[in-house]
């Protein structure tokens, strides 16, 4: 099973990234994780979590989880010869969107996104901002035109979520699906229909 790279950046909604990583790991999917400095700060502010993904699992760092440092631009996924099978940036700040859209590769997250695009690997961007400015929309369009999947963090209500975790699960599942990872959606449109 090939590796998926998950990046958490400094946008509100860092819990989406945490839940996505937890779902992939629980399904036995090998995952590389990079948390930006601002991403770690948001995790602390919004959820009282550290930026260390190993601390998100009560039993410690699970098998298949590899934590990378955003400043390590020599890490294996930064090379086209070691590119992950897919990359998901969740949540993706508008600053990160802008830097990826313009080809700036000054951090591991930005470099890996650049590699995903040039190697034609799935790159999923989960933006978390509202409202969107014209600049945000243009940058997202640039990424979509370059081949990225733009999956806004917009939960559906046809799944009849009963709590915030249900709403988060929907966004997480759509990001996983867009990355081409073979895991089923936990809830679908009109599940009860014949």
Helix/strand-derived category reads alpha/beta
**Shape label:** globular
Order of helices and strands: EHEHEEHHEHEH
- The CATH topology annotation reads as Rossmann fold
Q: Give the strand content.
A: 5-15%
Helix content: 25-40%
CATH architecture: 3-Layer(aba) Sandwich
Strand order of the largest sheet: 3-2-1-4-5-6
What profile does the largest beta sheet have? 6 strands, parallel
Number of domains: 1
Q: Distance between the terminal alpha carbons, to the nearest Å?
A: 34 Å
Radius of gyration: 16 Å
Helical segment tally? Answer: 6
On the 0 to 100 scale, the average pLDDT is 94
- Low-confidence parts lasting 5 or more residues at pLDDT below 50? none
CATH superfamily (homologous) name = Flavin prenyltransferase-like
Name the CATH class: Alpha Beta
**DSSP summary, beta strand count:** 6
Keywords:
194 residues, alpha/beta, Rossmann fold, 6-stranded parallel beta sheet, globular
């Amino acid at each position: 099973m090939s590796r998926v790279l998950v990046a958490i950046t400094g946008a509100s909604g860092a819990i989406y990234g945490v839940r996505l990583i937890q779902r992939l790991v629980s399904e036995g999917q090998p995952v590389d994780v990079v948390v930006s400095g601002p991403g770690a700060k948001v995790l602390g502010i919004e959820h009282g979590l550290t930026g260390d993904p190993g601390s998100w699992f009560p039993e410690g760092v699970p098998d298949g989880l590899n934590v990378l440092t955003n400043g390590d631009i020599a890490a294996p996924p930064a090379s086209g010869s070691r590119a992950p099978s897919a990359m998901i940036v969740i949540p993706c700040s508008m600053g990160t969107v802008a830097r990826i859209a313009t080809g700036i590769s000054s951090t591991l997250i930005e470099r890996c996104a650049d590699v995903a695009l040039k190697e034609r690997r799935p790159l999923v961007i989960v933006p978390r901002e509202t409202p969107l400015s014209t600049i945000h929309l243009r940058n997202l369009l640039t990424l979509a035109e370059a081949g990225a999947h733009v999956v806004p963090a917009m939960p559906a209500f046809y799944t009849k979520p009963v709590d915030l975790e249900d709403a988060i699960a929907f966004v997480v599942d759509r990001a996983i699906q867009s990355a081409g990872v073979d895991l089923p959606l936990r809830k679908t449109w009109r599940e009860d229909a014949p």
